[in-house]
Amino acid sequence: MKGKHVLLTGGTGGLGIGVTPAVLASTPKTVTIPYRNPQDVERLKQILSPADFARISFVPTDLTDEANVSKMINDMEGVDVLIHLVGGFSMGKTHEYSYEAWKNDFDLNLNTTFLVCKHSLAKMLPQNYGRIITVGSRGAVQPGGQLAAYCAAKAGVVALTQAIADETKGTNITANSVLPSVIDTPTNRQAMGEENAIQWVKPQSIAQVICFLASDAAQDVSGAAVPVYGSI
């Protein structure tokens, strides 16, 4: 990603804590990270050097609002790489799950993906270059009980990404998904305990896969859904 303009959504989150340092290490020209909560920016600040933190352009943005997304991307100098980490996990039996919760899962996981991909592509197509990396889930291809909304939304993320890969054949634009299993984040440790955490996927491992897919070395890889399952 050396010299590239990178849009990194979810860069302040649990997965972002592992991905953001790896992206910065690849010496991009610019890194833009949208955020909702200032405290998330402060959390990221604690793990980065002052020099690296200063290289990031933080933009307050609601990624579920198209006008917000459009403005953020149009204000960027360019978008060569889109790494979309934003998403959320929830559980509930289908017959008990509220329609509002269902819609929220799709807004957070799938609709944000559509909006950032749509407006990033508008920047990438004229320049005939782009790398799009989205985050699906193991549940997208191996759905589990009490995860219907989450798995359906993540399956949509994978399908959307593969459709974009098909649309951009013959260009120097690629679109790929990574499919993590349980990610070893503080939130997941708090929710599920730590006894099985050794089997979970480290954010830094996912970061390495993402950085490869974002690189010129992956120019012949598009439409892939890459499993990153750890030991589970």
From TrEMBL:
Superkingdom, taxonomy of origin: Bacteria
SUPFAM superfamilies noted in UniProt: NAD(P)-binding Rossmann-fold domains
One BP annotation, GO: fatty acid elongation
Gene3D superfamilies: NAD(P)-binding Rossmann-like Domain (3.40.50.720)
GO MF, one annotated term: oxidoreductase activity, acting on the CH-OH group of donors, NAD or NADP as acceptor
Family designation: Belongs to the short-chain dehydrogenases/reductases (SDR) family.
Protein name: Oxidoreductase, short chain dehydrogenase/reductase family
